[in-house]
Design goal:
heterotrimer; A alpha+beta; B alpha+beta; C alpha+beta; A: alpha+beta; Enolase-like, domain 1; 5-stranded antiparallel β-sheet; 4-stranded antiparallel β-sheet; 11 helices; 12 strands; C: alpha+beta; 5-stranded mixed β-sheet; globular
Chain lengths: 338, 788, 198
């Protein structure tokens, strides 16, 4: 089984500009390599198609200081390089103190070894877990084929209950909902320089070949997380089949600022249930400006999945997601972890 | 003197009439040091000079025919030394789980069938060569579902889809009868009917198949990943037209088998043939994806049970219909044509049964030995149904099982594999050689705290409910299997060296630790005074493949006989030194002594010095078949405590109490490890593991260790193990086999505990969160909320 | 509002064509994969420390660290059970952290320190973890064992007094199909006591 990787060139980028110029130089034939925990598996399995190319050059960003730093400023907030490993993120003192939802989410990703290798950027940019997407012999839409196999096939665990399009996969990232709930921003790089987008706009919908707005000559460089006010409550809940290794069947990230008992600003973001991290706007609107109580929590949980159109075999995710939203809000109400 | 019943050919040695000094000790595993230091060389670690690398091109379709194949570009690629296809291997058959299949068929009956094999100087060249082989397939409609295939008329078979044995087994009902089942149902006060379905499951051995074959012009040496070196040797010789004495198979370490490596895999034959063609060693190693797709699996089954009982719990009738999806092929050795219904016939006392088992050939993967192969579906269905019946009767499930406890059996082990035995009425009650299942059930339920069961689910008002459940089992494994051929040899040398020659593979069960313990006990020395020559067909006599929990019950008696014979010869030399007759002599702890005056003794080694140098004393042993009477089986029970989150469907198995009747544990430390291993399989089968297929193409989607969900360390509960002991004179020191029994009851015990917790029966495995959430939703819709 | 995800995205993105049944992103129907001849050939010199010894080799960039250890250095103690980072049998310690060597590129291990199973025992004497594994039968077939021990070693280097729960979590990425988990936990606790007493 050895030597399953195809041939490729490998280049160490020394700084963020060089990484961008290398991506441009190789014109869509190159990819950045960080933890490699998703990338190398896809390459070994030859997950490919006209819209899903196996890279011929890998650009290593792990030696770039900017990409692997965690910097905190009490006014500007947190800056995390996309190359920061999940373990470093989860165990960082400032993250555990000020942005604990990120630590909660990161610790539930994968396994010990995968967290030591996998990175923030990799977790956000990972490809779908759909069994058909990952199978060499099924050329689905995402790979440039002309159909989705999951809708008429196996879709119980890693597919969406809402906002499906030509593709019905569910976005598998745990960090994305947590970061979006913190109102994070993504810093993207290309050879012209860098620019910033709110993280929720980094992800695209189900009618696109990729899951992010990145063009082939662009990459995710950093994530900014703004300062969270005092009294902000942060909860991340994830439900999966086994107690380790698995991706979310459904996950909920909630960040709420409570002042004088009133919820002034709440973010509820769902993972594992839509093709992109899904902001439960209706639930948020229902809660903002009000006091949390059991009845409101119950209504908001229902509103969070309003409009869900599950596939024939994944309707259970609707109730599951409502439960997780309810529990996250209840823990904020009780000021304790669920 | 008590006559020995030990199952050996010729006269069995008399029982040892002293306390045991070696057997029963928790000695450390002999090969542990090599394994913990990384020095153990598994077949994939072997590297020979000038070695070539082999790769196989697999057919991606579950059912297809080759229209055209052209390997010329691959043959011409620099670095490629040989290519095999159907064009240059006509008439060649290899065996595949003992099925003599055409080496490179024209017609494929399961995904992953072999189209070509390539040997090249480097792995990357071999991979490139596969890409250069042009194949045109006619893709045929696969038959995937057993029930649907059974209902449809038999398809016109294409070319050589005919596997030997198909005509005997495909769609043929096999039946076990007892008494009069219609009358039995008439006598019943309560009748319960249910249907149970179990999933495709896989072995998940951490080592995939790998082999190195080396031909030197006359002799073939193979380092294989197989559970039986002798089986591999004979199969290779047969297929390649070689004299068996020129074939040697070596397996010193095996990274898990669980039945998947019980018989030869075709890659070994291809590697051997490529080595014979090129004159160089050839290594073939399978990827994990290949291991899933082109390998055997456990049958998926649908089992209907209808059971009748009197008000007091006495069972009066059982009707069963079991349909097993056999996949592309399964001959007698793999099919166990009555294995499901055998368990139903024998576990509980029931005077009237009509049990039917049908296997259906489909285009899923071949089926074969898989840790507790058809026992797992059988015991899951039966023990789930017993709890169902208990609830209908308003009876404690433990009491119901005790009420129907049987000290006899009517259907023998060999009959589960004998197609001609179908349709008989098995009315003769035959007692067991040993059985203490009742004590096991008592211990397991005591161990879990069974008395808490009634009130446990009410102990928490929140959404998380706790429950306790149990299941018992009988399995036919662990007492030896047809054809009962197992041999051992012992040589005692002048310098005191003792060699035990056993052609067995240690697959992780500790076979090379256990067998010398048996020999040491019989000889009266310490276990480490014995050197074991194993895992190699050179110099060892025939031994069975290490599967079906058969090693200890088959090799054990052979080893005892060999040791006893050698010992008696040594005693003949020692007698003059002690000035007594032979039959006055005993041995223990490295001393040979006189029975009447134990202080009057000489060291074992001193007696050895009387052996002629260069002419060691030889003792040989050979297993005899199991008799028709008494009946033999292994037994046990498990009780499980778990929690179910009724809102998320999460199941946390908190504790398992496992009590087993294996006769005696030769080495309790290693035996306990086997119990843990069974539970690892049992939990996965109950809650998380399933092979999933695309419904349209029939291709296996779960071809990796992420999507095929085996339990992690965090999923594994606390386990209390109780190893019971009971005399069984037919086996070496009463030791029956222990490899696979303990995964049989776990799924039913879990399912029954879930019912205790939330009042919902789950009859389909695995019990994943989506099924739990759905079932609770339906329960709420019906307005039936009492149990939650 | 994210109710119209496509519109929102088009505001911030450069060009990204929508999925269609026919065209691909290069406008050519059914464009073939680029041929491999035009990729840069990549062989690199790597210099790293393995089990305390410096090693230097020229290797292809496609070679994983597991392949480097097993094929180049003939350290076959590290096993490859799946080659996808899913089973944990290839676990080694890289700069103090347990990682899956099948998913680390050999060229990216250059300049770093690797500890494999072969580096634990010293001068023929078993490490306390290894001794405890033997004593508690924390292994059966042994194939997961090298990777398992490396995860345990990394745990004890970080936490010299772990609880059962700590041990369980530290091996959440090491699959043992033989079910040795209970004995592995017992062995680790004993090993931690032995190490603390030294």
């Amino acid at each position: 089984m050895l030597f399953e990787l195809p041939s490729f060139g490998h280049v160490d980028a020394r700084d963020v500009k060089e990484a961008a110029s290398l991506l441009q130089k190789y014109g869509g034939k190159a990819k950045v390599i960080a933890g490699a925990t998703d990338l190398l598996g896809l390459m070994k399995d030859r997950v490919e198609g006209p819209e899903c190319r196996i890279p011929e050059v890998l650009i290593n960003i792990k030696k770039i200081p900017d990409m692997t730093r965690i910097a905190y400023d009490e006014r500007a907030g947190l800056r995390i390089g996309a190359g920061v490993t999940l373990t470093r993120l989860a165990t960082s003192g400032v993250v555990q103190r000020e942005f604990k939802i990120l630590s909660q989410a990161a610790l539930q990703i994968g396994t010990t070894q995968l967290r030591n290798m996998g990175t923030l950027g990799g977790n956000l940019c990972q490809r779908p877990r759909c069994l058909y997407f990952r199978h060499h012999d099924f050329r689905c839409f995402k790979k440039g084929g002309n159909r989705c196999y999951a809708t008429t096939g196996e879709h119980r665990f890693y597919h969406s209950i809402m906002k499906q399009g030509r593709c019905v996969m569910a976005h598998p990232s745990d960090l994305a909902p947590a970061l979006i709930a913190l109102k994070a921003e993504a810093i993207l790089m290309n050879s012209n320089g860098k620019w910033k987008v709110p993280l929720q706009e980094f992800f695209v919908g189900p009618n696109h070949y990729g899951e992010t707005i990145l063009n082939p000559d662009e990459y995710l460089a950093e994530i900014y997380v703004p300062i969270q006010s005092a009294g902000t409550h942060q909860v991340f809940l994830k439900h999966r089949i086994r107690h380790s290794a698995d991706f979310a069947l459904s996950s909920v990230a909630t960040v709420a600022r409570i002042s004088g008992g009133v919820c002034e600003d709440i973010r509820i973001v769902l993972g594992g249930v839509a093709p992109f991290p899904y902001i439960a706007f209706m639930a948020e609107e229902m809660i903002n400006g009000k006091r949390l109580d059991e009845s409101l929590i119950s209504q908001a949980a229902g509103a969070s999945v309003e409009g869900a159109k599950p596939l024939p075999m994944n309707g259970y995710k609707v109730d599951l997601t409502k439960t997780l939203v309810k529990r996250a809000l209840a823990s904020i109400l009780n000021r304790t972890d669920p | 003197m008590v006559e020995s019943k030990l199952l050996v050919k010729g006269t069995p040695p008399p029982p040892l009439d002293r306390e045991l000094t070696v057997v029963g000790k928790p000695l450390n595993r002999r090969d542990a040091a090599e394994k913990v230091t990384g020095q153990a060389k598994y077949s994939g670690d072997i590297k020979l000079p000038n070695m070539l690398y082999g790769k196989i091109l697999h057919c991606p379709h579950p059912r297809a025919r080759i229209l055209k194949i052209d390997a010329s570009k691959a043959e011409a690629l620099p670095g490629v030394k040989a290519v095999l296809t159907m064009k240059n291997t006509k008439g060649w058959r290899t065996s595949w789980y003992k099925i003599p299949e055409i080496a490179f068929p024209e017609v494929f009956t399961h995904e992953g069938g072999e189209v070509a094999a390539v040997a090249a100087e480097e792995m990357t060249i071999a991979q490139k060569a596969l890409e250069l082989i042009d194949v045109e397939y006619e893709v045929l409609t696969p038959m995937l579902d057993a029930e649907e295939t059974l209902k449809a008329p038999p398809p016109p078979l294409v070319g050589d889809e005919e596997y030997p044995g198909r005509e005997i087994f495909d769609r043929k009902p096999f039946v076990i009868k007892r008494g009069n089942v219609e009358k039995g149902f008439e006598e019943a006060d309560v009748i319960v009917e249910e249907t149970y379905t179990t999933q495709v499951s896989h072995h998940g051995s951490i080592q995939t198949r790998a082999c190195v074959a080396s031909w030197d012009g006359e002799n073939l040496t193979v380092w294989d990943a197989i559970q039986g070196v002798w089986y591999s040797k004979l199969a290779l010789a047969d297929s390649l037209g070689l004299d068996p004495k020129n074939v040697r198979v070596i397996v010193k370490y095996l990274g898990g088998g669980f039945g998947s490596k019980a018989w030869s895999h075709r890659i070994t034959f291809y590697a051997a043939r490529l080595s014979m063609l090129t004159g160089k060693p050839v290594k073939m190693e399978r990827t994990r994806g290949e291991e899933f797709i082109n390998h055997s699996r456990r049958w998926d089954c649908k089992i209907e049970i209808k059971m009748g009982a009197k008000k007091d719990g006495t069972l009066t009738a059982i009707y069963q219909k079991a349909v097993a999806n056999m996949g592309a092929a399964a001959t007698g050795e793999n099919y166990y044509c009555m294995q499901i219904i055998w368990h139903t016939a024998n576990l509980h006392a029931c005077p009237n049964v009509y049990l039917e088992q049908i296997g259906v050939y489909t285009n899923r993967q071949i089926t074969g030995p898989t840790r507790s192969p058809l026992n797992m579906p059988a015991i899951f269905a039966l023990e789930s149904h017993m709890d169902r019946m208990a609830v209908e009767l308003g009876m404690d499930p433990f009491e119901l099982r005790m009420k129907n406890y049987t000290t006899y059996q009517t259907v023998g082990t060999d009959e589960s594999e004998d197609p001609t035995a179908s349709g008989k009425s098995y009315d003769t009650k035959i007692p067991y050689s040993s059985k203490i299942l009742d004590q096991c059930m008592k211990l397991a339920t005591d161990g879990i705290g069974w008395e808490r069961r009634k009130t446990l689910k009410h102990s928490n008002q929140g959404p998380v409910k706790r429950g306790i459940g149990m299941a018992s089992y009988i399995v036919l494994q662990g007492v030896g299997l047809h054809p009962y051929v197992a041999e051992a040899k012992i040589a005692i040398h002048n310098d005191g060296t003792i060699n035990l020659f056993v052609g067995v593979v240690d697959i992780g069960g500790g076979q090379q630790t256990i067998l010398p313990m048996i020999a040491a006990e019989e000889l009266g020395v310490g276990a480490h005074d014995i050197t074991v020559i194993y895992g190699d067909t050179k110099d060892t006599p025939y031994a069975p493949s290490c599967h079906a929990s058969r090693l200890t019950p088959e090799m054990g008696p052979a080893v005892v006989q060999a040791a006893a014979e050698a010992r008696q010869k040594l005693f003949a030399l020692a007698a003059p030194m002690l000035h007594v007759e032979n039959d006055e002599i005993r041995s223990k702890n490295g001393e040979i002594y006189t029975k009447s005056d134990p202080i009057h003794s000489i060291p074992f080694k001193m007696a050895c010095s009387k052996i002629t140098p260069g002419l060691p004393i030889i003792g040989q042993g050979s297993r005899a078949p199991n008799p028709k009477e008494p009946m033999m089986a292994t037994f046990g029970a498990q009780a499980v405590e778990l929690e179910v989150d009724t809102e998320t469907g999460k199941v946390d198995v908190l504790k398992i109490a496992a009590a087993q009747d294996f006769g005696r544990a030769i080495n309790p430390k290693l035996c306990t490890s086997q119990v843990y291993g069974g539970i690892e399989f049992g939990i996965g089968y109950a809650l998380t593991e399933e092979g999933l297929y695309d419904p349209q193409t029939g291709k296996l989607l779960t071809n990796n260790l992420h999507q095929y969900r085996m339990p992690t360390s965090i999923d594994f509960p606390h386990v209390d193990v109780y190893l019971m002991e009971v005399e069984d004179p037919y086996f070496a020191y009463s030791a029956k086999g222990a490899g696979e029994n303990t995964n049989a009851p776990t799924p039913a015990a879990i399912r029954n505990a879930i019912y205790n917790a939330i009042g919902i029966w789950f009859n389909e495995l695995p019990i994943t969160p989506d099924k739990i959430i759905k079932a609770i939703q339906e329960k709420k819709k019906r307005g039936d909320l009492h149990a939650l | 509002m994210s109710s119209d995800r496509d519109l929102l995205v088009s505001r911030t993105r450069r060009k990204r064509p929508l999925l269609s049944a026919k065209a691909d992103s290069h406008g050519k129907e059914g464009a073939k994969m680029p041929s491999r001849e035009h990729r840069p050939e990549s062989k690199k010199r790597v210099a790293l420390t393995v089990n305390g010894k410096k090693v230097e080799r020229d290797i292809h960039s496609r070679m994983t660290l597991a392949e480097f250890l097993r094929e180049e250095l003939e350290l076959t103690g590290t096993k490859v059970g799946c080659n996808r980072g899913e089973c944990g049998s290839c676990t080694v310690i890289l700069d103090g952290n347990p990682v899956l060597s099948c998913t680390v590129l050999g060229v990216e291990a250059s300049g770093r320190e690797v500890l494999t199973i072969e580096g634990l025992a010293s001068e023929g004497k078993l490490h306390p973890i290894q001794e405890a594994f033997v004593e508690h039968d924390a292994l059966q077939c042994g194939y997961c064992t090298p990777g398992m021990i490396m995860s345990i070693k990394a745990l004890l280097d970080r936490n010299s007094n772990p609880t059962d729960e700590d041990v369980r979590k530290s091996i959440d990425g090491n699959f043992c199909r033989c079910g040795s988990y209970p004995n592995i936990i017992k062995a680790t606790i004993e090993a931690s006591r032995k190490i603390n007493h030294k």
